[in-house]
Design goal:
Helix content: 10-25%
Shape: globular
Strand order of the largest sheet: 1-2-3-6-11
Number of helices: 7
Mean pLDDT: 79
Number of strands: 11
Low-confidence stretches: 1-7, 13-55, 303-341
Radius of gyration: 29 Å
Order of helices and strands: HEEEEEEHHHHEEEEEHH
């Protein structure tokens, strides 16, 4: 009995010693000296002296509420007054215009030369303004096609769109902002396969509900086709793209032009060539074409967010009575920068 007890105690002691030895070995293999937190890979985007990680909170934008990131990875915001959803675009440099010969039908010298433009971040509506959204703000719809309130508002002039923007404290996109948003990082005639992205003369005979086709790489719908979209600029004559002003930053052509205001994107009424990313046309500001619509935008220049006036980047010329009638309040055709109040 005593011998058996000694045997059991010896075995237990051996087991404990073996366990302690194995545990120490495991701990000693797993242990390593603490990493020097100041050593980071070059180009990681974090300063060695930084003690805090960059904030992951979405930017607070007066008049807008954050929604979520879209499937393309870009932040979306809802305009508090109109409930229109906007996509926040980062801006930066892009190539604007088309190279010679891109159009097989038209010889449009006003689309070139291709030039580099630098843009500040901005918001742009995910979709063209629908008839329901227009009616919510303006009370009635002027649209020729009234079969579905989810279709984009049509038959609106540039002046009509300016009235909408003044009521909502929004803005029209500049022509450079519009093309940047349309291209979504692409450099060819279209931002994808046209048939999958656009309503144009080959596949419809009138406006169609927004969001019915594929979006572009920014998550924007109907940038090609459906309705042509008004931009803020006067239509710049041939040769402007070759000037220093056209290269930005944040270019806006503000000289009064007898060629009218800019329309972009093509529509249900035109051929594929007129739906190209670089295609542009000038129309008088009071024209109410049945294929004319728009999508609003909002600059995110810091001056605007802080309640000050955003820098005017148009090339101002002498004021004329005709220009005042056209724009209502400014040759640059924009409302004052939105206050943060």
């Amino acid at each position: 009995m005593q011998k058996s007890l000694k045997t059991r105690l010896s075995r237990a002691l051996a087991f404990v010693l073996a366990a302690l030895s194995g545990g120490f070995f495991t701990l000693s293999c797993a242990w390593s000296p603490p990493e020097d937190s100041t050593k980071r890979e070059v180009g990681s985007g974090t300063s060695p002296s930084s003690s805090t990680a960059p904030s992951l909170q979405p930017e607070q934008i007066p008049g807008f509420s954050y929604v979520a990131k879209n499937p393309q990875g870009y932040e979306t915001y809802r305009h508090d007054q109109t409930r229109i959803v906007f996509v926040k675009l980062p801006g930066g440099k892009f190539k604007m215009g088309s190279p010679p010969g891109e159009s097989r039908i038209r010889n449009l010298k006003d689309e070139g030369p291709v030039h580099e433009v630098t843009l500040s971040p901005f918001l742009i509506a995910e979709c063209e303004v629908s008839q329901a959204e227009w009616k919510h703000v303006m009370g009635t719809t002027p649209s020729y096609f009234k079969r579905n309130e989810r279709c984009p508002v049509d038959s609106v002039s540039w002046n009509d769109c300016l009235s909408f923007c003044q009521k909502t404290k929004l803005d029209l996109p500049t022509e450079a902002q519009w093309e940047y948003a349309c291209r979504a990082g692409t450099t060819g005639p279209y931002a994808g396969e046209l048939e999958r992205m656009a309503w144009y003369e080959a596949n419809c005979s009138g406006t169609q509900p927004v969001r019915a086709k594929e979006p572009n790489g920014f998550g924007l719908y109907d940038m090609h086709g459906n309705v042509s979209e008004w931009c803020k600029d006067f239509f710049a004559p041939i040769g402007f793209y070759a000037t220093k002003e056209a290269g930005g930053p944040d270019p806006l052509y503000g000289l009064h032009s007898s060629l009218g205001r800019v329309l972009r994107g093509g529509s249900y009424l035109v051929d594929a060539d007129a739906c190209r990313s670089a295609y542009r046309i000038g129309i008088t500001a009071d024209d109410h074409g049945a294929n004319y619509g728009f999508r609003p935008a909002e600059s995110l220049r810091q001056e605007a967010l802080q309640g000050g006036k955003a820098p005017v980047t148009c090339k101002a010329g002498p004021r004329t009575e005709e220009a005042e009638e056209d724009s209502g309040d400014s040759q640059c055709a924009g409302r004052p920068a939105r206050s943060s109040e």
